[in-house]
Structures are given as structure tokens and as C-alpha cells.
UniProtKB/TrEMBL annotation:
Domain ATP synthase A/B type C-terminal: 358-456
Keyword Glycosyltransferase: no
Keywords associated with the record: ATP synthesis, Hydrogen ion transport, Ion transport, Transport
PANTHER family per the UniProt record, alphabetical: V-TYPE PROTON ATPASE SUBUNIT B
GO molecular function terms noted in the UniProt entry: ATP binding; proton-transporting ATP synthase activity, rotational mechanism
One GO BP: proton motive force-driven plasma membrane ATP synthesis
Chain ranges of the ATPase F1/V1/A1 complex alpha/beta subunit nucleotide-binding domain: 134-352
Name this protein carries in UniProt: V-type ATP synthase beta chain
Function according to Swiss-Prot or TrEMBL: Produces ATP from ADP in the presence of a proton gradient across the membrane. The V-type beta chain is a regulatory subunit.
């Protein structure tokens, strides 16, 4: 399609990253434009609102020094698009999809709208294939299923970046290792974090099967809104055009939502809860619902959005709305982190609503669900007893109670606290049985007798934490 090369010269005013242009009602919503000023500098932008009076343009770069008198706006593309190619795997890009790895620009096989194509609900297939992250707490207790969207709820100062890098390095769909890819999008990174992710992906070899989009904290807020859409467009292309099973990791959605709030303030919109725009739920849903499995298509898109909860408040609008849209949550715990446990994932408030679809006989192992339930119940009992001991002391406990206290310690040390190891689901279940076997058989009420007869008494020469063996 040939686009009309028309210029709009009546730029009325600038508010932060927003440019207001009069007599431009024929510009289309989401159109990509160039803004040129008298100095010859050209900035990119996107149309975010059109009325009879004016058009509002988000400028992708700094607006400081932009001369209104000489500024002109010209149409580049009817909608924001990304040139995609299979050759993007193994590459690093900025938040707008421009290479930052020193290599030439990607030769696009196709140009796709970054807004994605709505997925027909009738064409969605049921997610029911297990994805192994190599992290015991996730794989056994909050299992990730291919096509699922399962967020990680973290907090300021907690090691969610390290956890994200570990998942990106270790994740696989058993039996489909060759056509598995990771699309990693990070928003609002400091320079130190950019260096960390770049070095980590290169050091571990994870970059060879990954596509990285890295948006820095000093980049314009507008770019932060485009970064996850660039990543998801790439994921959809790899999944539904080339048959990849794609895991999309988005971090940190809190930075994304704060950019939404900043843009909303510049547009003088009426704020909603905590100053965030009222349409934030819809905006997040547009991102999260781009995960799924489609009938007749070999590939799939699975999402792990990561967000840091302000003040560790799970009722804050960002985690609250995310919880409505997604299928569970993985909670990173500050108390576990303060004990030196890594990854500090607390299984009690964590949940995977699709876990039952992808585990069990023929998928992981027949005893998987029962083991998950038993670990949950025993750990919850152990934590309750810890609170009781703080009041009454250990003298008031029965011998069985003391075993549960010991179980809670072992569970945190050897099962949750696996460090940076990559455990198969078999390894994780073996560790679980090794810890559960310290409890009397009579206490394993959630496990079948057949499983107890087969696995009870499992021992391990070494329980993988700093080389310490389990006594």
C-alpha cells in the first residue's frame, strides 16, 4: 500500500513526551510518524489519540529542544510494525527493535503489526504440556504449562532478575528441545542490569536460543510501552510461522505500568487507583492474552511476566489486576531471601491454576500431584509450629511436631534452596521424597500406598546445596 506523503505543520504544544498537532484528524490511531524540526533532526513517534481538533503523538525520543515553530509531522506507516525473521534468534535489540549487539540489522522476512492478531477463542487449544524450568519449587508445586501465562510476584531488592536469567537458561519442553526458544524483554533497566543480563546470557550460552529486547531506564517512557509488544510479536512469529515453543519472559511490568501512568499524566487523563490510568486492566490484558496454543499450529507462546510489588503489597493495582488476568502466580519471598535461600520462592501463596492439566502419569510422573499436595501440607504445618515454638518453646511439642519442624528446615534448605542448579523433574521429585521420608509413613496421608511402597525411604548421597549432605 502506498502511503500519502503529507506533512502536518501546525504543532500546537508539547507536554512531556507528547506532541499535539492541529488539523491532523486524518491521521490514523497507532500510525507511525516522523517529527522533523528546523535543525534537521528527525524523531520517531506514534499517534495515540485523534480528535476533530488535533492528534496526540507519543515521541519516541527526548522532546527537549524541539522547536514548535519549525516542527513538521509526516506519516511513515499506518501502524507500528516490526520486521521479523528467524535470524533474530541469538540477537540483542533495544526496546524499539533496533540491534544493539554490533551486528547488522535483521533482514526482515515479514513486517508484522506489534499489536498482534486477536486469537480466536474457538481456535485456542487446551494447555496441557509440562514445561520444565529446572527449578524444583516451580516444577513440582506451581508447574508451568505450555501456553500458560504465569507471573512472578517479587519485590524491590529481591533476586527476580537472577531468577529470570536462570529460567531463561534452563527452561525446556521435554522432547522438544530443538524447537524451544526464549524471548526476553526487560523494561526500565539500569546500566548494571543491562550488563548483567548481557553477560549472563552470553556466559551460559542461553543467547544461542534467545531473542533479547533491553529497554534502559534512561530511554523515553514511550519506548517502555512498545518493548513488550515487540517481544510478543517476535514470539508469535517464531511460534506460529516457524513452529517454535516460545517462552516469553517480561520484566519488570511495574516499570511498564509506571510508564503508562506517566503518559496518562502527560495527557491529563483522569487517574484511577493510585494514579494509574483506568484502562490499565485492558492494556495488561492485551499483553497477557497473547499467550496460548492454537489448534492446527505446531508452536505455542507461554508467558512469565515478572513484577516487583511496591512495598510488597499484593493488593497493589499492578499485581491485583495481573492476578485477575493470568493463571496463578509465583511469589518471591523476602523472609526466605533474608535466610540466604535461593531461589526464594514461597510455595504457600504460589499457585498454578493449570498445573493439573500438564502433570501426572504419562506427562511427568504418576505421583507428582500427590507429592505436591503433601509437601504443601507438611510445610504449612511446619511453619505453624514455628510460630507456636516462638511462644511456648519446643518443650511443648510432640516428637511428631519436632519432625515437622525439621521438615520445614530441610524443605527450605534442600528443596527450595537449590541455588543455580538445573534439576530435571525426576531430580526434583527424588529430592522431595528424600525429605518426606524423614516423616513417619502414617503422616503421608496425601500419597497413595503404591507410591509410598515404591519411593518411601529414598536417600541421596548429596542433597545439592553448597555440597552439604543431608543427614
Amino acid at each position: 500500500m502506498t502511503l500519502l506523503q503529507k506533512e502536518y505543520n501546525d504543532v500546537s504544544y508539547i507536554s512531556g513526551p507528547l506532541l499535539f498537532v492541529n488539523a491532523a484528524s486524518d491521521l490514523a490511531y497507532n500510525a507511525i510518524v516522523n517529527i522533523k524540526d528546523g535543525s534537521g533532526r528527525v524523531r520517531g513517534g506514534q499517534v495515540i489519540a485523534v480528535t476533530d481538533q488535533n492528534a496526540v503523538i507519543q515521541v519516541f525520543e527526548e522532546t527537549r529542544g524541539l522547536d514548535l515553530a519549525t516542527a513538521s509531522v509526516s506519516l511513515v506507516e499506518d501502524v507500528a510494525r516490526l520486521g521479523v525473521s528467524k535470524e533474530m534468534v541469538g540477537r540483542r535489540f533495544d526496546g524499539l527493535g533496533r540491534p544493539i549487539d554490533g551486528l547488522p540489522a535483521v533482514v526482515a522476512e515479514k513486517r508484522m503489526s506489534i499489536n498482534g492478531q486477536p486469537m480466536n477463542p474457538a481456535a485456542r487449544a487446551k494447555p496441557e504440556e509440562f514445561i520444565q524450568t529446572g527449578i524444583s519449587t516451580i516444577d513440582v508445586q506451581t508447574s508451568l504449562i505450555r501456553g500458560q501465562k504465569l507471573p512472578i510476584f517479587s519485590g524491590s531488592g529481591l533476586p527476580h532478575n537472577e531468577l529470570a536469567a536462570q529460567i531463561a537458561r534452563q527452561a525446556k519442553v521435554p522432547g522438544h528441545e530443538g524447537d524451544f526458544a526464549v524471548v526476553f524483554a526487560a523494561m526500565g533497566l539500569t546500566q548494571r542490569e543491562v550488563s548483567y543480563f548481557t553477560q549472563e546470557f552470553e556466559r551460559t550460552g542461553a543467547l544461542a536460543r534467545s531473542v533479547l529486547f533491553l529497554n534502559k531506564a534512561d530511554d523515553p517512557a514511550v519506548e517502555r510501552l512498545l518493548t513488550p509488544r515487540m517481544a510478543l510479536t517476535t514470539a508469535e512469529y517464531l511460534a506460529f510461522e516457524h513452529g517454535y515453543h516460545v517462552l516469553v519472559i517480561l520484566t519488570d511490568l511495574t516499570n511498564y505500568c509506571e510508564a503508562l501512568r506517566e503518559i496518562g499524566g502527560a495527557r491529563e487523563e483522569i487517574p484511577g487507583r493510585r494514579g494509574f490510568p483506568g484502562y490499565m486492566y485492558t492494556d495488561l490484558a492485551n499483553l497477557y492474552e497473547r499467550a496460548g496454543v492454537v489448534d492446527g499450529k505446531p508452536g505455542s507462546v507461554t508467558q512469565i511476566p515478572i513484577l516487583s510489588m511496591p512495598d510488597d503489597d499484593i493488593t497493589h493495582p499492578i499485581p491485583d489486576l495481573t492476578g485477575y488476568i493470568t493463571e496463578g502466580q509465583i511469589v518471591v519471598d523476602r523472609t526466605l531471601n533474608s535466610k540466604g535461600v535461593f531461589p526464594p520462592i514461597n510455595p504457600l501463596p504460589s499457585l498454578s491454576r493449570l498445573q493439573g492439566n500438564g502433570i501426572g502419569k504419562g506427562k511427568t510422573r504418576a505421583d507428582h500431584k500427590n507429592i505436591s499436595d503433601q509437601l504443601f501440607a507438611a510445610y504449612a504445618n511446619g511453619l505453624d509450629l514455628r510460630k507456636l515454638v516462638a511462644i511456648t518453646g519446643e518443650d511443648a511439642l510432640t516428637e511428631t511436631d519436632k519432625l515437622y519442624l525439621k521438615f520445614a528446615d530441610d524443605f527450605e534448605t534442600y528443596f527450595i534452596g537449590q541455588g543455580d542448579q538445573d534439576r530435571s523433574i525426576e531430580d526434583s521429585l527424588t529430592v522431595a521424597w528424600g525429605i518426606l521420608s524423614k516423616l513417619p509413613q502414617s503422616q503421608l496421608t496425601r500419597i497413595s500406598k503404591d507410591s509410598i511402597d515404591k519411593y518411601y525411604g529414598t536417600k541421596m548421597d548429596e542433597m545439592w546445596r553448597g555440597g552439604r549432605s543431608m543427614q
